[in-house]
Amino acid sequence: MIFNIKKFARKLLLDLKPYKSAREEYVRDNKNMVLLDANESPYKSLTNRYPDPLQIELKEKISKWKRISINKIYLSNGSDEFISQSILGFCEPSLDHIIITSPTFLMYKVSANLHGVEVKDIPLLNDFELNVSEIIKKSNNNSKILFIARPNNPTGNSYQEKDLKNILENFSGLVIVDEAYIEYSKQKSFINYLNKYPNLIVCQTFSKAQGMAGARLGMAFAHEEIISFLNQLKAPYNINTLSQKEAISKIKSQNKVLLKTRAILKERDVLEYKMKKIHFIKKIYTSDANFFLLKVDDSSKRYKQLIDKGIVVRNSSKNLNCSNTLRVTVGTSKENIMLIEAMKEIDK
Ligand SMILES: Cc1ncc(COP(=O)(O)O)c(C=O)c1O
Hints:
The chain has 12 helices and 11 strands. By secondary structure, the chain is α/β, with parallel strands linked by helices.
């Protein structure tokens, strides 16, 4: 399918000449070069050299793991950085806007605010499904990005595949499907649809099921022209050496990740069963992720009571249509027992 990045990118940034490290074209082919180009310390340690700006070794591993070619992979300092860079790259401040579907992950809005880009909100329906017809009706040529988290945070549900496809076929801007929790989901990744929909970007993260939130590493998958454009905008060394190494070893141990993911899903079932007996919990929303959205009688009161018992959950009540809700992450079996004990005590 014909794809032209000029339709999406900010004009100002299209001809940008990015910063290039002097050695980029030499080191990959010849590991024995004497490196005197970057004013680093010459004394060897894990981190005395700047990291590979294009993270080729790591991308090769991701490419095999996700079955996607290297030139369709972009890496960021957490998905947060990718969200910010995509708004920077595709939205003209004071002219374009992004679309979000509240309640959803707050960073889309925060990031747009930081970049001076307007946010149009087309809230989810009462059952937390996408309002597809409104999204299509209310979008125009200045609707540059639609952010869809699937599974969604804080609601925990995954939207219907047919709704997403409908949007991808009818929305003229870019659709970013944020799959931060995909490992926990029953749904298949939209990576499989990248060839079909050139306006689709899928992002995933090492922060959740991969257990590397502290390393800050996000992945985005898209048409090669989108990736090449995003690479032009990025800070040259946005992924540090330690995170790149850690991610390479994490990819090798996906069997362990899978076991831990399954353990969390089992814990999620146990937690749900036990929380059904807690009276102050009025509703447990079905979760396709590693957390629950709970409707409670009084979220501020229950939040504080849990804090007093040494347990921090998220008071998610400020989100649209989420009054009196708490968002609770599934922890280890021991942590979940402590949570339930605390809930039972304050339920008395
Ligand atoms: C839907 C969603 N996307 C992205 C992120 C952030 O991911 P990262 O840690 O990679 O910045 C989160 C974190 O809570 C999230 O819930």
